[in-house]
Amino acid sequence: MSLNNFVSTPKFEDYKERFKNFYNMERRADGVILVQAHTKGGPIQLSVENHRSVGQMFKTVGADPENEVMIFTGSGDEFMMDADPEGFKLEEQDLDYWAYEYAYKDGRINVSSLVNDLEIPTIGAAVHFVEVLEAFLVFVEFRRRNEVIQRHDRFLPRFWRGRA
C-alpha cells in the first residue's frame, strides 16, 4: 500500500456550484452532462472572465470519472452574439498583459483542454444565432437545436482585411 492516497477527483455538485455564474450544469444518472453557457441566465455574452472559464470548465468536467458524454450549448436564442458591456474593461487597464493572458494564453488553453482534457464524447449543440470560432467546431460533434443556424464570425473579416 502506498504512503499516499490518490488526489480526489472533482465532484459534480462542487463544480456545478463553482461554475454557476458561467454555466448551468445538469448530469443524468448515466453520466451525460449538459453544460449550458450563460450570462446572468440569458444568452452568453463574451467577456475576459467567461473566456477563461471555458478551459477551466473543460479540464474539470474531463477530470470527473462520472462523466460519460458532454453536451455543450448556450442558453436562449443566441450564442455569444454580443459582448458583455463591462467584459473587456480589464484590457483597457493593461492591454499588453491582457492581450497575452486573454487572447493567446486562454485561447490556447481552451482549445488544448478541449482536445487533451475531455476524454469523453462531446457534442456542441448550436442555437439559432451563433458566433463560434472554427477551432471549436473541429473538435466536437456539432448538432443544431433549431432548423436554421445563422453563423456569424465578427473576427474573421477583421483578420483577413487588407490581405490578398
The secondary-structure class comes to alpha/beta
Helix amount, in percent? 25-40%
Q: Provide the spatial order of strands within the biggest beta sheet.
A: 1-2-3-5-7
Extract low-pLDDT stretches. 131-135, 137-164
Number of domains: 1
Q: Could you tell me the strand content as a percent range? A: 15-25%
The CATH architecture designation is Alpha-Beta Complex
The biggest sheet amounts to:
5 strands, mixed
Describe the structure.
The chain is α/β, with parallel strands linked by helices. It has one domain: 2-enoyl-CoA Hydratase, Chain A, domain 1, CATH 3.90.226.10. The protein has helices at 12-18, 48-63, 89-93, 95-116, 134-139, 155-160, and strands spanning 23-27, 32-37, 69-74, 78-79, 122-126, 129-130, 141-144, 150-151. It has a five-stranded mixed β-sheet. The longest helix has 22 residues, at 95-116. The protein is globular, with a radius of gyration of 17 Å. The chain starts with 11 loop residues before the first helix and ends with a helix. The model is unreliable at 131-135 and 137-164 (pLDDT under 50).
Write a concise keyword list for the protein shown above.
164 residues; alpha/beta; five-stranded mixed β-sheet; globular
